[in-house]
Structure to design on (94 residues):
């Protein structure tokens, strides 16, 4: 069973804001170094953000004033906390 949400739906769940196309489909979560198309990755700082921008990921979960020329961003107060909150949505406890 493949779960999928739009960037806007994820932002809403996390009380965050979408920068870019909120209608893109997000199909999973992955770290930047192995993210595939359609997946959401996250960036805690500028170094991670650079890797995330180069990745295949569809969108990046960020906190702070980062901007991207080529990725949809979901801006939240704390990217690490938001990641922990969205993880069970994609990986429900069995």
């Amino acid at each position: 069973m493949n779960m999928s949400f739009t960037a806007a739906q994820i932002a809403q769940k996390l009380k965050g804001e979408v920068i870019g196309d909120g209608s893109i489909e997000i199909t999973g979560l992955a770290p930047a170094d192995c993210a595939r198309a359609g997946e959401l990755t996250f960036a805690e700082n500028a170094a991670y953000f650079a890797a995330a921008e180069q990745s295949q990921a569809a969108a990046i979960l960020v906190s702070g004033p980062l901007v991207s020329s080529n990725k949809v961003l979901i801006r939240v107060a704390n990217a690490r906390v938001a990641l922990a909150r969205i993880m069970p949505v994609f990986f429900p406890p069995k």
